[in-house]
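Now for my pick.
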Amino acid sequence: MEKINIITIFGTRPEAIKMAPLVKELEKREEICNKVCVTAQHREMLDQVLDLFDIKPDFDLNIMKSKQTLTGITNRVLEGLEDVFIKEKPDLVLVHGDTTTTFAGALAAFYQKINIGHVEAGLRTFDKYFPFPEEMNRKLTGSMADLNFAPTKSSKSNLLREGIKEKDIFVTGNTVIDAMNFTVEEDYKFSREELNTIDYKNKKVIMVTAHRRENWGEGIENICNALKDIVCAHEDVEIIYLVHLNPVVRNTVNSILGGLKRVHLLDPLDTKETHNLMNKCYMVMTDSGGLQEEAPHLGKPVLVLRGVTERPEAVEVGTVKLVGTDTNFIKKEAEKLITDKESYSNMSKATNPYGDGNASKRIADSILYHFKKLKDKPEEFK
């Protein structure tokens, strides 16, 4: 039997988390030969995920450099993948989401006239500079993709409005929910003892991440001032801020929150630790995209520290709320969840619209359908 030759490409930790369960699913399919290529746009954080899911790349471009620029990343990915594609001649290249690796990977495949499959396709804010450069990365990737694996009906609608043919769109759910089935454990013990000493049952523990470029400067300052006021006003609140390694972010966070009681400033955790911290915490405050999908799966309310989101589904069902970076508004919405049981219950019990743990299976089936290995188009995630 002639197999479908696929190369799956990713380069950052968020991509790896969401592509790992798909890689595992493709390995099970006898009709498919899948090879993994990592760009290592982020080296250390990527390697953590590869180890967690026991994935050994077939190709490692190892492009990361100190103080790398978007132009430099794009150039190195294009040049590295050209050699891989010419040698391997895959039938399909899979990329994920909205990173520079994603866009450059799709462009490199397009130059070689190779079919492109875009996992997590169709997310939009409709503002090309927010988030930057992700909004244009995913939009440009979508314009080149032959197969579009949209996580939700809303994402599918965005693609249809952009002229993508319905036959080329598959609504699958989000693979991050598949990944969490691998990582979350009820009696989990953290590798950092500081996290094991926190009273998650009796304290209202707020997990925080905030590091996006758009929030550098005044945005991060406002967020930190809100967190400072919140923890000082509520004795039952503890904050765990996973502080990005970028010095622009770290300097601001440390200057405002350093040394405060019940505020834990920690380096970013690996994937398994992050998922299990979410599972134990009371609520999440973040400017990340992925956490907006992950936390609702665990029944945790999310306050999004951004003015817009490319993931509107959770806002619509009520498990996520946009609060931006205004200090007073952040405080108001956080205190509502801290003090009002009904508000907290309404958000924590809202249905997660992002997946049921079967997205990877739907994507694999969709690939088989496209290559005429399956007769019927797979049913959409609803």
